[in-house]
Amino acid sequence: MPVPPRPPAIRYNPPPADGESALFLMKTYTAKPGEIQREWFLVDAEGKTLGRLATQIADRLRGKGKPAYTPHVDTGDFVVVVNAEKIAVTGSKLDTKIYYRHSGYPGGLKQRTLREQLERRPTEVIRKAVKGMLPKNKLASAQLTKLKVYAGPDHPHAAQAPKPLELS
Question: Which of 10, 74, 90, 165 fits a 20 to 30 Å CA distance from 64?
Fold first, then answer.
């Protein structure tokens, strides 16, 4: 029995014109480190929930809201957080959430509750929450350097004229 002829192939993309290769039809924009416009934002943490605040800060540090966002390039903005000591948490996290650190020596594990950490180093609470929401690579450490956290209402970045960041 003879084999029926095969129907012509259907091309969904038009053939390249003017001798161009099909590989160069679609161009994807990639941000270069020198082209990035960075802005400064000011966040007042008073009364804000820790986790919800940290996610929005992490997105701003990564540059996720920008049209030129590129995952492998640091396209984020600077974020200044004030009133870190007045952060809010829900439930009984003040007494049950524990922060660990290790000295590097045997038996050198130290721990503090969230309440103790807010009394001693309130800036570290927000910094660790944001750090946990960034990717685990070298780019994240570069993005984390753009986060400036202060316990009280004063900050030394008035010369950069940070715009207030409205958090949803």
Answer: 90
Q: What is residue 27's predicted lDDT score, i.e. its pLDDT?
A: 77
Would you state the structure tokens that stand for residue 101, as one six-digit string? 């650190």
Query: How much is the pTM?
Result: 0.82
The torsion angles phi and psi of 3, rounded to 5 degrees, stand at -80, 130
The type of residue at 29 is Y
CA distances from 109 to 72, 93, 100, 125 (A): 34, 21, 7, 18
Backbone angles phi, psi at 129, to 5 degrees: -65, -40
Residue 158: CA atoms inside 13 Å, Cβ hemisphere, count?
A: 4
Say what the pLDDT of residue 22 is. Answer: 54
H or E element: which one contains 56? helix 50-62
The pair phi, psi for residue 50, each rounded to 5°, is: -60, -50
Helix (H) or strand (E) holding 111: strand 109-113
At 143, give phi and psi (nearest 5°). Answer: -70, -35
Residue range 114-131, pLDDT digits in tens: 999 999 999 999 999 999
Residues 6+ away with beta carbon under 8 Å from 145 = none
* 3-state SS class at 42: strand
Q: Is pLDDT of 24 > 60?
A: no
